[in-house]
Amino acid sequence: MTSLIAYWNILKKDVKYYYLKPPNISWGIIFPLSWTLMQLIRSPGGSILELLPGLISMSVLFGTTSMLAVTITFERSDRSFERLLLAPISLHTMVLAKISGAIVFGILNAFVPVFFASFFVHLHEVDWKLVLPAVLMIAVTSTLLGLLIAVTAKQVFEAQTFSNLFRFPMLFLSGLFIPIKDLPRFLQPIAYCIPLTYGTDVIKGAFIGANVLSPMLSFGALSAFAIGLFIISLKNIHKKWIL
Amino acid sequence: MAFVRVSNLKKTYGDVTAVDDISFDIQKGEIFGFLGPNGAGKTSTVNMMIGLSRPTAGDVVIDGIDVRRKPKQAQAIMGIVADESNLYKDMDGFENLCFCAALYGMRKEERELRARQLLEQFRLKEAGRRPFKAYSKGMRRKLTIAAALIHSPRILFLDEPTTGIDVESSRQIREMIVKLKEQGTTVFLTTHHIEEAERICDRIAFIAKGQIVASGTVAELMQRISLDRAIHFVTGIQDDEFAFELQKNFEGSQVERKSDHSLVMRLQERLELFPVMEFFHHHGVAVYEAKELRPSLEDVFVRLTGIESSILKKEKGGGK
């Protein structure tokens, strides 16, 4: 019960004091919106349905990674994070509470492009039963990547720099804009080491039936990434935060 | 059985030994002062005791709980006040206390009731709905201590609780520490303020270069060193020659003339007053007051650690 109460209150605090702050709300809307408009202006003849999977994935990736890394690094720099480390709750509970806020934020970000797209195209043929879990899994894995950064970074600007260091290559390697088969041969194996690749593939399948892998395989890979990243993050936390 | 048992605790960071094989016990309901200069190993010791750092060697057992093996179980009975106020700046006082209570699994009604009680107790009721970032330094300190007491801990770790805050808040905090002791809470107090430790601690340990140099009650620590005996005489003269004569007449003494018509006479042995007074009388020097100068805990600290108290005082303003 202690864990549950603590979990819920950490999550509530993060949502209220970080994620629901006006700059984050506006950023969460403006960022996906500007990407959507940019893509539409750049290729006016292009299908919105073809653009949406990439935009959804990107919105989740950017929303989750930066927010979690920044909030944790911020709390660590003003030492309020010590309160969580010293609370009589397991590290698992604390980490789950911290990542839950970012996951929810990422999921909400994902549906900003969907909301705007719904004014232009019919989305009733989209297989939402696949989209929803795929968005969730992208949010989970991206958040855990953000956690890895948070453990490494000491300052907020470091967290932002590290985030960009891996986010931008991921955009080009995960099949968001360039199909993996069109990448140079030596880069193709790297694409399959990125969780975003699998999430995007499922969403592409759900929107336009253009998936390369079977959804089952993609969800399996995403689950494996999530578990692996969670374990690595916990080990890193033990190593770097409990000195 | 000791409430806290620290045995052969050691912490190294690469080649640097921050804490070097220290051991001490703390009894239940005791205020234990932990004194030392910057870099002496105070924070490293505390961090190992509260489970925020892993010992290189040694054990910490608090109320029968091995902190190394069951840190979360031990943290449930601890209240921890860091040297900096580390509450959430955007939350108000009441929300901060309620959030801290939630971390200990307290239910909504229970945590709100306790938060109100503590705001009242710490005279922060009026400021309860103001954001923490708008608090004065003294108020921040008090709220941070209140947050550490939210779950009624059995042991309270206080790191420099009165450093850099106003006199009134310091006084209130000291009163609160004494009250907690009366209620049976054990207090581990890390401080630079020797006078504060002398005033409220039941026992004190001096740490320097990662080692416990001495520990005991203030009286026991005083006995650990044989300081000179000194008598302060308030006289009616200001005469260097008389001071020299006095020193010459009493073998082994050292006489220092002060600017305020007084003399300080130091001896290794206990001084018999009558011959000295007779000497004064014989030379026609009136004595208005004579009192023994007792060594302070600060003298003991300086003697045992070899660290000048001025260095320690300079550090009071800064961090640890």
Short summary:
The complex is a heterodimer of chains A (243) and B (320). Chain A contains ten helices and no strands.
Q: How would you describe this protein?
A:
The complex is a heterodimer of chains A (243) and B (320). In chain A, 78% of the residues lie in helices and 0% in strands. Chain A has 243 residues and is mainly alpha-helical. Chain A has one domain. In chain A, helix 2 packs across helix 5. Chain A starts with a helix and ends with a helix. Chain B has two domains: 4-223, Rossmann fold, CATH 3.40.50.300; 228-293, Alpha-Beta Plaits (2-Layer Sandwich). Helix content of chain B is 37%, strand content 27%. Chain B contains twelve helices and 14 strands. In chain B, the strands form three sheets. A six-stranded mixed sheet of chain B has the order 6-7-8-3-9-10, with helices on both faces. In chain B, helix 3 packs across helix 4 (108-121) and helix 3 packs parallel to helix 5 (137-148). Chain B starts with a strand and ends with a helix. Chains A and B meet through helix 1 and helix 4 of A and helix 2 and helix 3 of B.
Judged by helices, strands and strand pairing, the structural class of chain A is mainly alpha
Report, as a whole number of angstroms, the end-to-end distance of chain A.
Answer: 28 Å
- Kindly name the structural category of chain B: alpha/beta
* Approximate strand percentage of chain B: 25-35%
CATH H level, superfamily name of the largest domain in chain B: P-loop containing nucleotide triphosphate hydrolases
Order of helices and strands of chain A: HHHHHHHHHH
- Spatially, the strands of the biggest sheet of chain B line up as 6-7-8-3-9-10
CATH architecture of the largest domain in chain B: 3-Layer(aba) Sandwich
Q: In percent, how helical is the residue content of chain A?
A: over 70%
Could you tell me the mean pLDDT of chain A? 85
